[in-house]
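Aim 2, interim progress. The first record below pairs a target sequence with its C-alpha cells.
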Amino acid sequence: CKYFFISCDDTKLLNFTLISGAQLSAHFSNDLIGLFFTYPRDPRETNAAIVIHHLIFLSCGIIGSVFYLTPFTYAWLNLCEISTIPLNIRWFAINTGNGNSCIYWFASYSFVLCFVIFRIIMYGIGLFDIYLKYEEIQQHAQALSKHTMKINCTVVVLILVSIGWILQLYWFVTGILPLLFRKGGKKKQKKEQ
C-alpha cells in the first residue's frame, strides 16, 4: 500500500496521497510562477537547476495525484519544504537591508540545519527505505502486470525522486556550505551605459 494502490482499501492513505500530491503540485506551480514572473531576481539566481528541481517535483505531484502512487514518498517530499521557511526569512532580511542582522544569521543557520535534516538525511532515509524494499516492490509489480501504467508511473516517480536527491546533494556542496560564510548584502545591479 505504501508504493502501489492496487487492492489497497485504506481510504485515509488514498486521501493523503491525493491531497499531498496536489499540495506538492500547487506549491511548485506557485513557486515556478514566482521564479519567472513575480520576484525581482537576478537572472543568475533563476538557473536551470532550480527550474529542473521544480519541474521534477511538480511532475511527481501530478503523477502521484492522478494515479494514486507512492504516498510514503510524498510525506518526506513535503517535509523537505520546511527549509523554505527560513530561506524566505533570509531572503526578506537581505531585501530589507538587514543582510548582516541577527535575523539574517539565525535564518541562514536555521535554513542550513533544516536543509540537512529534511533534504539530505530524511530524504536519503526515504530513498534507502525504497531500496531496502525494492524486492517487495518488484514482487508487487510482477503481480500487477495488467496495471502497467501505474507500474511505469511509479518507476518514473522513483527515478525523478532519486534525481531530485542528487540535486539536493549538489546544492548542499556548491551553494549551502558556502552560504554559511558570506554576508547577505544585496547584490549590486550593473548599470548599462
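The second target in this work package is listed in the same format:
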Amino acid sequence: LAPEWELRDAESAAAANGALDLRAKPGLREFSLRMLPSSQWLDGFIEAEVDALSGGLWLVARKSVDHVVRFGFDRQESRIFLQTWTGGGRTLLANQRFDLPDGFFATNHVYRLDSRGRGVQAFLDGAPLARVPEALPAPWEGGAFGLVCRADEPGAARATLRRLASASVAPRIAVVPGLLGDLGDRRQVGEDV
C-alpha cells in the first residue's frame, strides 16, 4: 500500500498475485482507506479492483464538510447504489439504484467513482452505470476520496484489493460555438457583456 493511503481500523496482509488482503480489526464493523492528497483536489477519481469480499463496499468522495457521494453496496442487497448525502451524512439527496445480475459476487469487479465539477459518475467494470453524470447541488468544494468496507458482524468486513488508484484530474473545458456567436451579436447591438 502506497504511503499516500491512510488505512484505518484494518489489518493488512499480502495476498496472491500482489493483491492486498484487508480485514477489519477484531470488534470493529468497518475499515477505511483514504487517499491523503485528495483533500486538496477539486476533481478526481477513485478506482478499486476487488476480488474477495465479505460485507459491503463503498467508494466515497467527500465533497465538503457536509456533502458526501458514495458508490457501492451493502452485501445483503442485490443492487448497487450511487448516493448523494448532505448534513454530514444525515440527509439523502439522491439515490440511483442499479440491479446486479445473479452470481455477481462470485467474481472480481472494478468499481470507479469520478467527480468532476458539479457532477459524479459511477462505473462498473469500465462501463458507466448511467448515461450522464449525476448533478450535485452546490456548494461543492474539494474533499477526500476513499474506500469503506463494512459488515454487520464485528471483525467480518474483508476485502482483497487487486488494484487501488486515485488521482486528481484536469477540468474539462468545452467551447460552445453558439455561445461565442451570441456574445458577438450582443456587442453589435451595443449591450454590455
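DSSP finds one helix and 15 strands in the chain. This observation will shape the mutagenesis plan for the next reporting period.
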